[in-house]
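Please fill in the sequence for the structure shown.

STRUCTURE ENCODING:
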């Protein structure tokens, strides 16, 4: 047999490491006798393994060189060079994601869990995951490195061995706490002392999802024409009517800064938890390497607004802290954080109760997308801006650096009632924060209120005036 890579009509192929090692071992025994001891702990066996690895590495290099001549298989700098020759553009690599089914004890808290697949790849489940009453939860995991990757699934055997001390997440390869055997949690091997085989339990039937629990949604099909994005959400008649007013200014701004303009539509969450729709932002943030600018549908962008992506360092995400001008929000935010703390059974992350970021304007790159990791817990006494407190918990719990944006990038109506100061300060983003038609809103915050409509028309008229002055 040949140990070298070969090229034929179907492309390039090469034997894998084990095939090379078995071949060398057979030839060695053909020379020195079949009784030659060639196990890995022998000197001759180790030498054969070194030779096999050298041949395998050489073959891998030959395959990489061969594939570098095709845009379909080239990687790294080779891909960048070959696409230029062929007159095409290279797609920017992104981080692969997959869904992980976690089965375990109800109430178990998993923070930044890591799943190792059979190929040795590490998949990170950013944020906090709490196993609900159903005993299982599906979480999104992100591969540790950017680029293409194949995830190999694990199929447990038909008979499991139940461990008295189960580890936390199904699929994580680790050592059993009692016997030290390598196991796939929460099942250990039959050699573990004190464990008896059990038939697997029937597949649990998940109960109906309560209205105050985030409902996972399929990954969106994102069509990209740029490496940056301006994103908004328009859900239902309320959101669509807002977007009809603000959308033209947001779309013009996206064009100005060379970004795609994307709109998230279609209700996926309970009607009283429309704020949970914002957790869909994370998928878009991961897809745009240069950055994503999220704007609420009630944000109007002035024509002279600068590029907000230039204002935020790549290692940080951008938000406006409104607590200094609305001190009452700190007390409100603390109450929300305490509600989360009681539910997950963990103390409030240090610093989370000292700021209150308005999430109507957010800037981030793929590295900060896990700010939008959704909760897997039931939110008690839900409020229509619960996503802000949960995301603030994520930021401090995961150590995501935050750049405090210039207030002019998020000039909120709730800070400046009547928009009496905004014309003098000439903000870039006018944000009618909190306006909508939710039943628990104060009446003077509702879009149907004539005063609110009048203010919106005032802002739109000022936009036209500043547009003419900006030409």
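FILLED IN BY: designer on duty
SEQUENCE:
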């Amino acid at each position: 047999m040949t140990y070298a890579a070969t090229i034929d009509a179907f492309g390039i192929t090469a034997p894998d490491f084990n095939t090379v090692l078995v071949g060398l071992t057979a030839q060695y025994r053909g020379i020195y006798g079949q009784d030659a001891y060639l196990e890995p702990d022998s000197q001759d066996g180790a030498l054969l393994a070194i030779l096999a690895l050298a041949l395998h590495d050489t073959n891998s290099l030959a395959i990489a060189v061969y594939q570098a001549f095709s845009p379909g298989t080239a990687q790294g700098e080779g891909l960048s060079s070959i696409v230029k020759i062929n007159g095409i553009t290279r797609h920017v690599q992104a981080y692969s994601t997959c869904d992980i089914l976690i089965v375990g004890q109800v109430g178990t808290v998993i923070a930044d869990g890591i799943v190792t697949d059979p190929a040795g790849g590490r998949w990170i489940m950013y944020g906090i995951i709490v196993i609900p009453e159903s005993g299982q939860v599906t979480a999104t995991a992100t591969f540790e490195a950017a680029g293409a990757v194949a995830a190999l699934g694990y199929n447990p055997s038909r008979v499991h061995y139940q461990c008295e001390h189960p580890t936390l997440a199904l699929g994580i390869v680790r050592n059993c706490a009692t016997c030290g055997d390598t196991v796939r949690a929460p099942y250990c091997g039959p050699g573990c002392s004190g464990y008896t085989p059990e038939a697997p339990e029937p597949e649990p039937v998940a109960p109906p999802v309560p209205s105050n629990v985030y409902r996972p949604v399929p990954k969106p099909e994102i069509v990209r024409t740029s490496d940056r994005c301006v994103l908004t959400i328009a859900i239902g008649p309320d959101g669509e009517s807002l977007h009809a007013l603000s959308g033209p200014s947001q779309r013009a701004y996206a064009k100005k800064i060379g970004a795609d303009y994307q709109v998230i539509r279609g209700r996926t969450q309970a009607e009283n938890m429309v704020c949970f729709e914002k957790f869909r932002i994370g998928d878009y943030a991961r897809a745009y390497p240069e950055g994503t600018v999220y704007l609420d549908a009630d944000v109007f962008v002035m024509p002279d607004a600068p590029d907000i992506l230039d204002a935020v360092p790549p290692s940080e995400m951008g938000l406006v802290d409104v607590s200094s001008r609305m001190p009452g929000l700190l007390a409100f935010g603390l109450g929300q954080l305490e509600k989360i703390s009681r539910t997950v059974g963990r103390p409030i992350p240090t610093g989370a109760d000292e700021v209150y970021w308005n999430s109507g304007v957010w800037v981030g790159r793929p590295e900060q997308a896990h700010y939008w990791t959704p909760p897997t817990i039931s939110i008690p006494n839900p409020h229509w801006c619960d996503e802000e407190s949960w995301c603030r918990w994520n930021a401090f719990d995961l150590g995501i650096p935050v750049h405090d944006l210039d207030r002019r990038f998020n000039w909120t109506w709730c800070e400046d009632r009547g928009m009496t100061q905004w014309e003098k300060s000439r903000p870039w983003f006018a944000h009618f924060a909190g306006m909508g038609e939710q039943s628990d809103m104060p009446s003077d915050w509702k879009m149907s209120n004539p005063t609110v409509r009048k203010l919106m028309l005032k802002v739109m008229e000022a936009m036209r005036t500043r547009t003419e002055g900006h030409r």
